[in-house]
Design brief:
With about 210 residues, this protein is of the alpha/beta class. Helix content is about 35%, strand content about 25%. α1 packs across α6 and α3 packs antiparallel against α7. Strands 3-7-6-4-8 form a 5-stranded mixed barrel, surrounded by 4 helices. The two termini are about 20 Å apart. It is built from 7 helices and 8 strands; from the N terminus they run βαβαβββαβαβαβαα.
Length: about 210
Amino acid sequence: MSIQPAPAPLLIACALGIEHLALRRRDRGEAGGPVTVLHTGMGPKAAEKSVARLLTDPAFADAAVLATGFCAGLAPGMHPGDLVVAEETRDPRGTVACVGTELLVKELARILPGRTVHTGPLTGSDHVVRGPERSALRATGAIAVDMESAATLLSAVRSGERPVAAVRVVVDAPEHELVRIGTVRGGISAFRVLRSVLPAFHEWHRNVLLPRR
């Protein structure tokens, strides 16, 4: 009787305590393997360091990695609570192609009917982006920006072959910048959406697992 290898784990990386709270307070249900929600701390350096350190553990050698949390939308017409599923992540050090984008879009639309889901490049920054800089990033073709996704995925693929993805919830958009009145309302909307996304992550995980080496 052959012994089946244990399924590869899923590592979900987020930067902020409030993001971690949103992801941890919901019943995680059944995923394709063990699920770890990693609170990396804010900024690309913290994300890269935290993810790289965890992936040195042999138990995470084949882990699928998904970066999530909040982001700033770059395209006109985006609203707090919209979802962004990255086709790729970018930063000055390189571009990482995401896996299973269509599946994530399908599952998020099923779980959150009525929520707008945007797809396209997700770019990285080491600071909060506002005003003219937002327009400049939009001109590169990116649809959203955050500080950790690109660093998380780059760190993940540098440590070994694995499925990677990034899903973000818009909390800040061109017509709804964080400095404006309405920030609290937008933040609550984004938090509620983030609380609801885990089943989509689990379905993605089940469908993109790599065999254990």
